[in-house]
Amino acid sequence: MDPVTLETRRLVLRPFGPGDADAVYDACQDEDIQFYTPVPVPFGRQDAEKRVCEEWPQGWARDDNYLLGAFRRDTSALVGSYCLTRVSRGVYELGYWAVKEQRGRGYTVEAARALCDWGWATLDVHRIEWWAMTGNTGSRAVAERLGFTVEGTLRNRGTANDGEPHDWWVGGLVRP
């Protein structure tokens, strides 16, 4: 699928490009992003370049991982990364991280809602899932504001970058 650009009142969601590598690198120095999301630790500039130039565009080309960067309209500052990833037929996972300095302003809910709305309208989606390691209360608050039902806690579901197993929350949002 060809990448898309989505717009909200305060944000532009667009595919990352080579010029965004520095902003992605800076954002991913945050300890919370390194702990709660699947990024290499330490996260180097070459990791940012590989993602924005290779990995993230490949998701669109494969038609299975639709990842967009959200940027503020007023300053063009990076707000975060938002993706819908195919899990199985009709089921996608919503993933996101937000730049530390942009948190707490409602941008993540705004961006994630725009991406989910696009998914409902464009993809053959009947369920969107959200997963987060327990303790990631910011991610859970966003999911709940989006209308996800937290369906349970999976014990020792996966390991984090610390190499230890952790419990994970799972939630679902079904076609409106």
TrEMBL record:
Pfam families according to UniProt: Acetyltransf_3 (PF13302)
UniProt keyword terms in alphabetical order: Acyltransferase, Transferase
EC code: 2.3.-.-
Taxonomic superkingdom: Bacteria
Gene3D superfamilies noted in UniProt: 3.40.630.30
Statement: the UniProt record of this protein carries the keyword Cell cycle: no
Boundaries of every N-acetyltransferase domain copy: 11-175
Gene Ontology MF terms in the entry: acyltransferase activity
EC class (word): transferase
Protein name: GNAT family N-acetyltransferase
